[in-house]
Amino acid sequence: METSKKHQKPSETPEAVFIEIVFPQQTNHHGTLFGGEALALMDKAAFVAATRYARRTMVTRSSKEIEFRVPVKQGQLVELRARVVETGGTSVRVDVDMYREELLSGERMLATSGSFVFVALDEDGKPAPVPSLKKVR
Question: What does pTM read for this prediction?
Answer without folding.
Answer: 0.88
